[in-house]
TrEMBL record:
Pfam family, one: DUF951
Protein name: DUF951 domain-containing protein
Lineage: Bacteria, Bacillati, Bacillota, Bacilli, Lactobacillales
The organism of origin for this protein: Lactobacillus xujianguonis
Length: 87
């Protein structure tokens, strides 16, 4: 388990158990009460409650817009993630 402030939008994190596609890294697409994640292996998107995510996350692999992420097929840069217009 890592602290809540250790991860941000568009970071890639490693979970404790791998996905069905055998990849274990996920991109954070949404932060809030629920956290939306995208598998970097197959592109599958899931939403988890924050408490469940905090239990299942192992560590932060790379921070947002790291050049390492750009090589991954399913990575979506931080500036391309849809954000609601609240204002």
């Amino acid at each position: 388990m890592i602290k809540n402030d250790a991860y941000n939008l568009a970071d890639t994190v490693q979970m404790k158990k791998p996905h069905a596609c055998q990849k274990n890294d996920w991109e954070i697409l949404r932060l809030g009460a629920d956290i939306k994640l995208k598998c970097m292996g197959c592109g599958h998107v899931v939403m988890l409650p924050r408490a469940e995510f905090n239990r299942k996350v192992k560590k932060v692999l790379t921070k947002a817009n790291d050049p390492v992420n750009l090589k991954k097929e399913h990575y979506l840069p931080k500036d391309q993630i849809a954000r609601p217009n609240i204002g």
